[in-house]
Hints:
alpha/beta; Glucose Oxidase, domain 1; Enzyme I, Chain A, domain 2; 4 domains; eight-stranded parallel β-sheet
Amino acid sequence: MMLSTLQRIVESVNQAPEFNVALDTMVRNVKAALGTDVCSVYLADHEQREFVLMATDGLNLVEGERVVLEFGEGLISLAAEREEPLNIADASTHPNFKLVEGLAEEPYRAMLVAPIIHQRQVLGVLAVQQKLARAFSSNEESFLVTLAAQLAAVVAHAEAKDLVSDQRSPWLRNLRAVAGAPGVAIGHAFIGKPLASLSAVVPRRTEQPMQEKHKFRKAVLKTRQDLRALAAQVAEYVAEDTLAIFDVYQGLLDAASLGNAVENKIKEGWQAQTAVKLVVDDFVSQFEDLDDSYLRERAVDVRDLGQRVLAHLQDSGNVTMEVPDQSILVAEEVTASMLASIPRHRLQGLVSLRGSPNSHAAIMARSMGVPAVFAVEDVPLNYLEDQYLIVDGYSGDVFINPPAQVLKEYQELLLDELELANLVDSNKNLAAETSDGIRVELQVNAGLNVDHNEGRGAHNGIGLYRTEIPFMMRERFPTETEQFELYREVFKNYRGQPVVMRTLDVGGDKPLPYFPIKEDNPFLGWRGIRMTLDHPEIFLVQVRAMLRANVGFDTLKILLPMITSVDEVDDATRLISQAYFEVRSELQQNGEEASLQRPQLGVMIEVPAILYQLDSIAQRVDFFSVGTNDLTQYLLAVDRNNPRVARLYEAYHPALLTVLQDIVASCNRLGKPVSVCGELAGDPGGALLLLAMGYRSLSMSGHNIDKIRWIVRQVEAPMLQVLLNQALTAKHPDEVRKVVSMKLESLGLGGFIRAGK
């Protein structure tokens, strides 16, 4: 009975169209469920340090009147301070009781107060009162506490529930999102919508399959033309490797991907529009079932592509959007093609209600230098229509019709950004070297096809090439020849520079669509080297393709992921040797030069167990590469893609910094080169700490390289040592962040760090 009542109240609150209605529904239903005389909800205004009475059923709250209790006043504040419920039989006799004039609460004696807490922050309190002096029962207290816990998320999203019209909200009108591309954008919201909707298609049969097949092929041809036009439109201001996103789109249209599947549905008697819907929905569901966030975002691409084909089937594919100047693109789900269709000079930033920083739209936004945020808190798209926005791509904040003071602050930040960008650009062709002569190798992390080597002298090759991409975009394992051709292009475009290729890192949290793996705990499951060693036929084909592609270039380095033991290194080395001798023998039989170079072999440091085996493994490999993303995740036992614990994923955690310091010290002692290829290398503060520890090779996303180079050129060894000593003695990540931020500010580099980054 109690559970069903709780569920009914939570459901009714969630279904309320506006936040005020939600609060009124809450207090009315709680009062009825507990049979009390009064139920009220107070929300905390931490800026003004007061609790605001937002809704009540039983007290005399005049509409439009603002009733507040200052922090520290009354039983409301006491429950919030203690962060626990208060159950008082006669509140009027309690020393902390404060009577608020005008509410007519004098007759009420019994009081039960439960704090509303979301992610360790008290957002408000839920209180019930009764005329009869009595202690509430343990069941009643448990009910109110449980309800407050369940409603905390609703209250946390308060400003999103009735963002524009709720004048009583004590909070600044801002939304929380996930930062996707750095920078600050100011402008009017422009609502972007797909050209067609798959969900609107009503399944229909056909008796003319050949005619429907012809329609589909014609729509695919037009879609290909659209994609080429979009790629050409953004080619002037987007790095060519980012343009490979459109190659991925084109590949999805191939017969081996969507093409044959759609035509087979047409043969089964479905109309072309229906066939596209059925096939795309199936592909989307497969991708959305994956645990890995990067792979899951490929569902966005498939849906986007399907809707573009559908638009041409519906003769709506040639509609153009009239975008005003100084616009911020806002959409349910911003896609790469939607972003590319908007002239760059009209675009200030983007807000995607769904999606993540792993999406192709986010990758393109970073390449374009467009500030972007994703996964906005629960807010309907129409709430943002015609609104004036500030988008903070560092912290993930979105401000709606901001006050003059906030607008002025961000306008100043925008000017600082422009000045900083000019400084960074002026140094992009210089060496990454500290002011006292310490050289640092800056390399790029690559995951899509690498079509170019833009800024050849600007970086030192590829520090991490994710070879799983061609495996992900097919319906089967790619052949040795297909892999060879892809890798060969990489070596051609990075001639003379090192290319570190990581062997296939799928399985567990990154299963392939055609090789599904279902596990209860995929991050601790069958992934990386564990999967490929169990399938030597996959591992050998990939290594052979790498070795053959490297002939004549001799720049290949092979990197093994997810290593946890010496045995795994030995087994992988044996297979690599087998592949090497096979390829060398084939070259000799074909009369080609037998000067096949044996590549260097490296191991990723990402599982804590390897930290205690470095001496043994160092005897077997040529270099190490630290994957800070997974190392942080495993060290702290935090899944950073789980929103409940993502805040615990902390790159500045003192334990992680100590581990990173120990790694570089061990590698120096063992005489083995070590690099960092995780996100920490591309973070300004993280790069400084790594440099201070002694790391001299950092690999990162291409859009971070010039920024990190400029920072490196502004520092010197003695200053870095002082910074490191302060960071390593810090007891909390916030202390580390403060130390780093203050140092960057003192160097005039504060523009590289924003609150909440």
